[in-house]
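Handout for the seminar on molecular recognition.
Each group receives one record of this type.
Step one: identify the two inputs.
Step two: read the structure output and locate the region that could contact S-adenosylmethionine.
Step three: write two sentences on what you found, then compare them with the reference statements printed after the record.
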Amino acid sequence: MDRGSDRQADGDGAAQPPDGLAAGNTAQSEAWNGDVGEYWVRRRAHQERRYRRLTPRLMAAAGIRADSRVLDIGCGSGGTALEAARAAAAGTVLGVDLSGPMLAEARRQAAAAGLPQVAFAQGDAQVHPFGAAAFDVVISRYGMMFFADPEGALRNIARALRPGGRLAFLCWRDLALNAYLTVPFEALAPYVPPPDFGAPGAPGPFSLADPGRIRALLDGAGFGGVSVEAVDEPMWMGTDEDDAVASLTAMPLTRSLLDQAGEEARGRALAALRETLAAHRGPDGVTLGCASWLVTAGRR
Ligand SMILES: C[S@@+](CC[C@H](N)C(=O)[O-])C[C@H]1O[C@@H](n2cnc3c(N)ncnc32)[C@H](O)[C@@H]1O
């Protein structure tokens, strides 16, 4: 199995950029090796619970077999790589990510779960030297939207997949359809500056919101049989409004917006957020809608 370079395979979780990072991905590497990555490690269990209705959709679409060789792009703290390893009990799974701290957490989780068939490498998936046709299945849970050069990244990923191999990934549809973000930030809006999710199409959570762009990118990279399916699921935000507020205000983005407000505005913002979230509390805790694309394709 391709395990990346020695330093990458054995990385100690240091918050350093990966070897061979593409110049255009420096800002992403800094964020995911910095406060954003720390937030994801700290909130790992919460994040897994947020995705609990989405992960099974991805895994079902991936069609992993017991002997599959699986590549997880932007695997983060390892949630889907571990799921893939459970499915590929006699196969192999490689999770690749920019973030040393998130990969350190992924390795801890894999060791605790007793899944020796999964390995992790710190690398930039846009340019990482994967073995040619080394994988049967490529998956990603919201890890495909951050490339400065998505055309190059998809060509690199296609090269790693054997002909006939399968790609399955989740990415976000338009921000306006994702109540899990619009509802909290609308509640905060009278008190704090608006969040910046980047220019349309620029690297960031919504860069693949346009299904036409997804299809063009996949076609250009050598994929066929492309399916782009809308997935609408409630996203769990917390056990109650206080838990949801704690989670949202731990996000580096929200923290920085609140830090820009004065003490009084901050207090009002948090009260408004709590009241808004309380209105979305049900038997399952606080939930808000989220809108994804589930993309599947085959390597031509
Ligand atoms: C939204 S998080 C999702 C993490 C994980 N897939 C999950 O579902 O928990 C996006 C992940 O993509 C990774 N990422 C962003 N750009 C990348 C790149 N060029 N190469 C590898 N990983 C990248 C980030 O470090 C981060 O872990």
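Reference statements: The mean pLDDT is 95. Residues 25, 28, 32, 47, 74-77, 79-80, 96-99, 102, 124-126, 141-143, 146-147 surround S-adenosylmethionine (CB under 6 Å).
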